[in-house]
Design the sequence.
């Protein structure tokens, strides 16, 4: 249960402010209503033991949307895309987004095109019903210098073009280094925002991951209206080392210090947020499924 999100990722290897920027076909692909879902990393051990039973339990709680964090060898939690889609359908669930790291092995710089591995990732995401293909990590080798960042942000834009061909959008999910590492006087996150095309690259802002960096999620959303189609809705408490080695770990929504409701409400009001994805990685003695149930009840009480 103490496995860090960073370790897991390394091992497993906006709505636009101007909706008119989207093509008619892409606009039609998106439901304008907001959705409340859960990142399945919240119940990762349960998913490892029994994906079907875990998904069934989430569905019985009232969840209708899930976001994956496990795609290995062209399988979601051990299921090929078509089989996992069938399982979700049987349980009344939809998986509109998912986390798969887009790394240096996915881009052939010499040929200036994606490798088959990333093309298959995007294809399988479409087959399982995703609208968003989200990369939740930026390898250190891709952000050593400002010029490195500029080159890979163009790959981000190219991934947006690829996903667009499948009726989806590409996105990025932050951890904490984006707000502490600076290149050419700018934070990595500011570079990402400045160098990616909002029509091609969605931002999924994780409220909790950035909390211990001194960055302010509320002010980030306020400064960049319309850029955050998806939020990871998370609360934090101070416990020592923490999940990001920043002294904080996640907890049941509304019981921590991350000003979660205000940030979430701002996302809905002006951040362009349509996807509100619950994530809790630490549980303070409770079971992950019990926390998931509490988190959903809190979100409902907040009007989501």
Sequence:
């Amino acid at each position: 249960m103490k496995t860090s999100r960073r370790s897991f990722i390394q091992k497993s290897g906006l709505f636009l402010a101007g909706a008119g920027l989207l093509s008619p076909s892409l606009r039609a692909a998106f439901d304008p209503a907001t959705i409340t879902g859960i990142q399945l990393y919240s119940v990762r051990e349960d998913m490892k033991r029994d994906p079907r039973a875990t998904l069934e339990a989430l569905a019985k709680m009232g969840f209708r949307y899930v976001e994956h964090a496990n795609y290995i060898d062209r399988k979601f939690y051990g299921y090929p895309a078509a089989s996992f889609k069938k399982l979700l359908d049987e349980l009344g669930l939809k998986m509109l987004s998912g986390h798969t790291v887009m790394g240096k092995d996915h881009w052939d710089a010499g040929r200036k095109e994606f490798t088959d591995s990333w093309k298959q990732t995007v294809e399988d995401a479409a087959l399982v019903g995703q609208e968003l293909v989200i990369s939740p990590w930026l390898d250190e080798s891709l952000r050593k210098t400002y010029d490195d960042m500029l080159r890979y942000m163009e790959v981000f834009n190219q991934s947006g073009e690829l996903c667009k061909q499948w009726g989806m959008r590409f996105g990025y999910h932050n951890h904490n280094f984006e707000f502490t590492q600076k290149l050419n006087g700018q934070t990595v996150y500011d570079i990402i925002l400045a160098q990616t095309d909002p029509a091609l690259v969605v931002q999924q802002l994780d409220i909790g991951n950035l909390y211990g960096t001194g960055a302010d999620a509320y002010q980030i959303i306020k400064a960049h209206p319309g850029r955050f189609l998806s939020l990871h809705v998370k609360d934090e408490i101070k416990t020592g080392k923490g999940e990001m080695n920043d002294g904080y770990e996640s907890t049941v929504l509304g019981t921590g210090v991350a000003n979660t409701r205000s940030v979430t409400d701002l996302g809905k009001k002006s951040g362009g947020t349509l996807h509100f994805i619950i994530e809790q990685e630490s549980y303070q003695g409770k079971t992950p499924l019990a926390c998931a149930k509490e988190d959903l009840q809190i979100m409902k009480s907040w009007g989501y």
